[in-house]
Specification:
Alpha/beta fold hydrolase, AB_hydrolase_fold, 11 strands, hydrolase, 376 residues, alpha/beta, Rossmann fold, Lipase_secreted, hydrolase activity, 11 helices
């Protein structure tokens, strides 16, 4: 697989193929940073929310050692926000985006899972990243499992979706894409601090007076623009004005950091100079394609939330779980972790996650110890 300026080269035109069809793969050998797993970068077919055939990039990890007789179960990892520029595609990073993600993947690999990790559409491949567009993400999380079975014959027929933040939302949407994987059965889903309440994001960031939160607002505008019919998307300058658009463009070109330098000293009101009714209408469209609690879940699901999370408010996840239960989602379990922040909850919950997967046909994992980061 080749890439130019962090964008993987995709056949143009893209030959038609079924979702999950492998386009290309590169074997990088054993990766000592990820428990010695054999690491592959892949391109595969998926479909977006409009049903269009799209190429998506991602990573496949195969643990070292002999597989069980029935094959290795697969966890399709759904990453949290890393940015929207192609350089932010987790497959291009040694730690697949963030160190806390790598810790989670190491735990899954030690437990005996093969791991697939989609970049999601437009992140690492041509075109804009459809940030928080649920169907796009959920489809890509499911379709990479099919691609992995083409790459690595002998994997077990059961798979699981596990995701954090943006990826928690993606994992919940993957429940609605499970039928796409054919003979591969979705055994259960884990959503850690899932993104939700998209209808409130833009207005909430504007009212927050917290400049660092603008990154998520700008990323959301990229995702919203990507859902527009071709040729009708509004450019940032027309939407935000020249000054705010310049700042937004700088942020969009960067990958996630604790505080983007371009946002130092700016005003959230000046960066989102849109009237309330315009923000409301845009939020309604975002919620329609991205809120993960608008349909009942049909597979066993564990939702995880830290009660000290400042990025995904615990009250929002409480409401998501309550709504999914009202919709009749059998097998939905909700666990909260006292004092755990947005990233810390990954390590705090990992042993419970492995136990949950094991109870639904997953790997018979060895003894689990939470990583050091979860105790900081």
């Amino acid at each position: 697989m080749t890439r130019v300026d962090h964008t993987y080269q995709v056949p143009d035109p893209l030959p038609a193929a079924e979702p999950g069809t492998l386009i290309a793969a590169t074997d990088h050998g054993r990766d000592a940073r990820l428990e010695g797993a054999r690491r592959y970068t892949v391109l595969y077919h998926s479909t977006d929310a409009r049903g269009a055939d799209v190429a998506v990039s991602g990573t496949v990890l195969l643990p070292s050692g002999s597989p069980p007789r029935q094959g290795r179960p697969v966890v399709s990892w759904a990453h949290g926000t890393t940015g929207v520029a192609d350089a932010c595609a987790p497959s291009q990073s040694p730690n697949l985006g963030l160190d806390v993600f790598a810790e989670e993947l190491r735990a899954l690999l030690r437990a005996g899972y093969a791991v697939t990790a989609s970049d999601y559409p437009g992140l690492g491949t041509p075109g804009p990243h459809t940030y928080l567009v649920g169907a796009d993400e959920g489809n890509s999380v499911a379709d990479i499992v099919t691609a992995a079975h083409q790459l690595l014959p002998g994997l077990a027929p059961v798979w699981f979706a596990v995701g954090h933040s943006q990826g928690g939302q993606a994992a919940l949407f993957a429940t609605h894409a499970a039928r796409r994987t054919g003979a591969q059965r979705l055994g259960a889903v884990v959503a850690v601090a899932p993104a939700s309440h998209l209808e409130a994001m833009l207005a909430g960031v504007k009212a927050s007076h917290v400049p660092s939160e603008l990154s998520f607002a700008f990323y959301s505008l990229v995702g919203l623009a990507a859902t527009e019919p071709r040729g009708r998307a509004t450019d940032l300058s027309s939407l935000l004005g020249p000054s705010a658009a310049t700042t937004a463009s700088r942020v969009i070109a960067d990958c996630v950091t604790d505080s983007d330098p371009a946002l130092r000293g700016v005003s959230t009101e000046q960066m989102l100079p849109l009237p309330g009714d315009r923000l409301r209408r845009m939020g309604e469209r975002m919620g329609a394609y991205g809120d993960p609690d608008r349909s009942a879940l049909t597979v066993p699901t564990l939702v995880v939330q830290g009660d000290a999370d400042e990025d995904v408010p615990p009250a929002w996840t409480d409401e998501v779980v309550a709504h999914l239960r009202r919709l009749d989602s059998p097998g939905l379990i909700y666990r909260t972790y006292a004092g755990a922040g947005h990233s810390q909850v990954l390590g705090r919950s990992v042993c419970d996650v492995l136990a949950f997967l094991r109870s639904h046909g997953g790997a018979r994992s060895v003894a689990c110890t939470p990583p050091p980061s979860s105790r900081s």
